[in-house]
Write a structure and sequence with these properties.
The chain has 617 residues and is of the alpha+beta class. 18% of the residues lie in helices and 35% in strands. The two termini are 26 Å apart.
Length: 617
């Protein structure tokens, strides 16, 4: 952990060398963090044996090249703070990755030869900014970036200079490039609501619009993918016309739509099969994912056999093999290949030993003020009666906790804590109304659902009411600080990573796409609806904070900037509140495994000390 020389000295948490007295237990939990993991590979469209994936095999998440024909792997990037993601060019000759500074997310796309060599700016004339989408064709590249001035989308043909085809002060992004590279679908929020974007399709040659779709207030559209067949102008679109994420196919050649009728009770996402005859559909419900094949001609839906748990990324190879990432709370992640003959094997095994399994998650549906709240929970094996409990609050807020592998959850359980996840109003996967229920009243709404689940956990004998920890990162860190001020009677300690702490200052300093998101969420800017921002700001409620609080934050974070966190810490210090601070040299979270591990040690040790718990064996 790195302290900052740019600010007065804040209290730092006491971090032990080991969390457990038993060396085997200590080695087991650390092994879950340090075990190598890999992402689902992305392959070159015209050279599918050339693939790109991410891995933490060196202790930092970096980009790797995989030549499947030779079965050779090469680390592409080697940067102190890691690299977030990459893509292969259509011909497989180059690898693209986003070059920012110390995790600040502001930079340019660069490319280097697949077989190795120097990286150089990928698109001449593309300005530095926050990434707003990338589409790679044979001749055409579409790239987007955003700055404080708004969004810019451009194309580059045959390696030429970037030519701007769209610019606006509101949020926008690259969506999809047609296979013949004549059409470009973009998402935009010209109507002022980036949470529910519209779609415009423009001609690549001159940037002129050829089609527009906007479903109106509260109903967003997502341009997913053009059919991967030359001359096919069908665009796969995500919509929410019936209050959940569903699918339609928009044929630009005839300007007609066909809604995809799939009778499953959750949210849907999809991509085309290589011949565009079918869709690979991911169905998400109650924190778990299933995969299906949907035949576009017949409407037949075929289940693809995957184990219960969560799927993180899936795509179809030219031979029909579905490559996907899978994990559950009990079993670590695996990149797998489901072949047309039904065999399912591990595709890409990370080097080294596999991490030890953990415990499974159970489900609870708790009556809340806005309807049933879905919670996922587990307790340490062999325990009965109330135990110390950590409420791990997810970020987003448009995200959800799922039945997936988490070394962080696993070590809290090993340390003797029950763990409760709350998919509060604002979470994805439970329909549009649930996701949008926080609009105009963010923070307060989510905490009502957290309170309902807290009451359930105490009343059922799971949680010790005197030993409840509120913990989260990003939006979860924000809700942690807000909860400590608005629900002080419930929480014995709080641990907040990269939080919004002073909403007014956060809005001033954050990246423009986040400002656009906030305007959509609050119904305006702080100048327009100041009371909503003040009501939602943890700084407003700092006088009521009683529990010790640990804050962890990156110095280069463009999403939850450091100044507004310092403002909150100053307020705690002025009031004599107990707190500690961990600063690190990165952005919105760290890609360095050792840093993540150290943050987890700090959180558990801080909570244990605040609760007066002994070091477990």
């Amino acid at each position: 952990m790195t302290s900052s020389p740019t600010r007065r000295s804040d209290p730092v948490p006491a971090v032990p060398e080991a969390l457990f007295a038993d060396p085997e237990v200590e080695a087991r939990w650390r092994g879950r963090f340090t075990a190598a993991r890999v992402s689902v590979p992305d392959w070159a469209r015209d050279a599918p044996d050339r693939s790109v994936y991410s891995s933490n095999a060196t202790g930092t998440w970096e980009i790797y090249a995989w030549d499947r024909a030779a079965d050779t792997h090469r680390r592409v990037t080697d940067r102190p703070q890691g690299t977030r993601g990459g893509a292969a060019s259509t011909d497989g000759e180059s690898i693209w990755w986003f070059d920012d500074t110390d995790g600040d997310e502001f930079g340019v796309w660069v490319r280097e030869p697949f077989t190795g060599g120097e990286a150089s700016p990928a698109v001449s004339g593309a300005a530095p900014g926050y990434p707003a989408g990338l589409e790679l064709g044979r001749r055409t590249v579409a790239v987007g970036w955003s700055t404080d001035d708004g969004s810019t989308l451009a194309v580059s043909e045959d390696g030429g200079d970037a030519r701007v085809v769209y610019t606006h002060t509101e949020d926008a992004g690259i969506g999809a490039l047609s296979r013949d590279e004549t059409l470009l679908a973009i998402s935009h929020a010209e109507h002022g609501d980036s949470r529910h974007p519209a779609i415009r399709v423009i001609r690549v040659s001159d940037g002129e619009p050829v089609g527009e779709r906007h479903d109106g207030e509260g109903k967003g559209l997502d341009p997913i993918e053009f059919a991967p067949v030359e001359g096919d102008q069908r665009l796969l679109v995500g919509h929410e016309r019936r209050g959940r994420d569903e699918l339609l196919v928009w044929d630009l050649a005839t300007d007609t739509e066909t809604e995809v009728a799939i009778d499953l009770p959750g949210d849907l996402s999809a991509g085309f099969y290589p011949d565009a005859s079918a869709l690979l559909v991911a169905h998400t419900r109650a924190g778990r994912t299933t995969l299906h094949r949907y035949d576009l001609a017949t409407g037949e839906l075929t289940d693809l056999p995957t184990a219960p748990g969560s799927v993180g990324g899936a795509d179809v190879r030219p031979d029909g093999t579905v490559e996907y990432g899978w994990s559950s709370a009990a079993y670590p992640s695996s990149v797998r290949a489901l072949r047309p003959d039904g065999t399912d094997t591990e595709l890409l095994a990370p080097p080294g030993e596999r991490p030890a399994p953990s415990v499974a998650l159970d489900d609870a549906w708790v009556d809340g003020p806005g309807g049933p709240v879905h919670a996922l929970w587990t307790r340490p094996a062999g325990t009965t009666g109330p135990v110390p409990t950590v409420f791990m609050i997810h970020g987003g807020p448009q995200a959800a906790d799922e039945d997936r592998w988490s070394p962080v959850r696993a070590v809290w359980v090993d340390a003797g804590f029950a763990v409760v996840h709350v998919n509060y109003r604002g979470s994805s996967g439970y329909g549009s109304a649930w996701r949008d229920a926080i609009e105009g009243r963010p923070g307060t709404t989510e905490l009502e659902d957290v309170a309902a689940v807290h009451d359930w956990a105490v009343s059922t004998g799971l949680a010790d009411p005197a030993a409840c920890v509120l913990e989260g990162w990003s939006w979860g860190g924000y809700l942690t600080l807000l909860g400590l001020g608005r629900q002080p009677e419930r929480w014995a300690v709080g641990c907040a990573g990269v939080p919004v702490a002073d909403y007014l200052a956060a809005y001033e300093d954050e990246m423009e796409p986040l400002r656009a998101f906030d305007r959509s969420l609050f119904g305006g800017s702080p100048d327009e609806v100041p009371e909503r921002y003040r009501e939602a700001s943890p700084l407003t409620w700092v006088d009521a904070v009683r529990a010790p609080v640990l804050v962890l934050a990156g110095e280069n974070d463009p999403r939850c900037p450091i100044r507004q966190i310092d403002n909150y810490l100053d307020a705690l210090a002025e009031r004599g509140r107990e707190y500690a601070m961990v600063r690190y040299d990165a952005g919105h979270g760290s890609l360095v495994v050792a840093e993540t591990l150290a943050h987890t040690v700090a959180e558990i040790a801080y909570a244990r000390a605040a609760l007066g718990l002994p070091v477990p064996a």
